[in-house]
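quick one before i forget lol
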Amino acid sequence: MPHLTRMTPRILASASLLATLLAAAPLAAQAPAAAAPTFDPAADRAAALAVVKRLFDAMRAGDSATVRAVFHPQALLSSALVGRDGTPQVRVDSLASFVRAVGTPHAEVWDERISGEIVQVDGPMATVWTRYAFYAGTKFSHCGVDAFTLARTGTEWRILALTDTRQRTGCPEQAAGAAR
């Protein structure tokens, strides 16, 4: 092997390092992957619904910190409404203004009572669809449907989007005096 005698120590070290890296590459490819999160549909349905209920508990308490905590920082809030003239409308609200409104002192407790919850989960995503009746203190204000989209980040569920409908008349909760 006369050609090896002409190689400088630097070239030999580089060649040795390259050979070591090439030999180790298949081992790195076989390294075990990080543990995938586990999903338990029943537990995840309960956890997603608990986040929604926590939101309404925080609204009743005027607790803006908890309201902020249940939402993803980039959450979308919107309402699908029918205007006074009968035309469908969409109103978009910012998370910051909603949090501020909840935390601003008001004379009456904001009591959003939900019923008929339907919760669906697919891995790290959940939806909660529920009827609601909103009361300012003990006075009925309006009713409708809340549609939540939630996502699991790590071990925690957070609200990504909330869209609601609103009506002041024809509410089953109004006639029945919806219970908490």
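fyi The two ends are 89 Å apart (CA to CA).
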